[in-house]
Amino acid sequence: MGRIAIFTKTNLQDYRIIKLKEEIKNYNNISIIDIEKENIFPYNEKILNYDLYYFFVGSNFLSDIHFLAKYLEQNGKEVINKIHVKESIISKTLFYSILNKYVKIPEFVKIYSIDNIEYVINKIGFPMIIKHQFIHRGEFVHKIDNEKELYNFLEKYLLEKRINIKNLIFQKYIPYEKDIRIIFIGKPIGAMERINKNSFKANISQGGYGKQYKLDQEIIDIGYKIMEKCDLQIFAFDLLLKDNQYYLIDLHHIFQYEGFDKYLNKNITKEILNYLNEISNKS
């Protein structure tokens, strides 16, 4: 059985870290490596003492994981979610650019100067969604209903809070019938409808709750297309359903799953560890 390293930020008070520390006691061949304390560049060869590597919670582009992933692969090591080897910064913009030809995505625009805001208005119209390309969990998703709200938003976030407009995505609002989170761990693990009666944001972290949603073949096909085109093996993605059409709104290589465990009676941490062992045994 191969040795497996999971890179994470060990001091985070996070449900997923807590579950990982509990579950990993049952696996003698899997180790947790702190992505900040033990990530020293140029890399020490002791980092090569494992056969398979997975980047978990807290490991992001600020830790230069792209360089670490490339170093590991160049030394013959297996990296789960190989997108880390190819891309230095992973964002909604990257995923949209890769998948826009293959999966239905609500119409979107990115601009790099406020001078082009009229183009956004004419292209997207109202209501529109404004989201940050790096922020997830619904924490920077705003529904804008008219031009006055748009300019108030821009004044608040661009001028007062110094958000760079190049990090914003302007997207057509979909008045969805269902919001669905899907998890793939080498294969489809399940789907959960997210419901929030008090907000258009159905995220569990925004006060929503979940219930089982039946995986259909179209969702499964979308998941495998994401796996192929983005070179991801462990990931989650979010769909909106409107008039029998699925729209991809987000994709996560590191994702929240407390709601899955709670509402679908899953153990996603165990699913991840078992999958890592399965891949390690094949290597």
Automatic annotation (TrEMBL):
Residues 95-277 form the ATP-grasp domain. Keywords: ATP-binding, Nucleotide-binding. GO terms for molecular function: ATP binding; metal ion binding; ribosomal S6-glutamic acid ligase activity. PROSITE patterns: ATP_GRASP. GO terms for biological process: SOS response. PANTHER family: BETA-CITRYLGLUTAMATE SYNTHASE B-RELATED (PTHR21621:SF0), RIBOSOMAL PROTEIN S6 MODIFICATION PROTEIN (PTHR21621). This is ATP-grasp domain-containing protein. It comes from Nanobsidianus stetteri. The lineage of its organism: Archaea, Nanobdellota, Candidatus Nanoarchaeia, Nanoarchaeales, Nanopusillaceae.
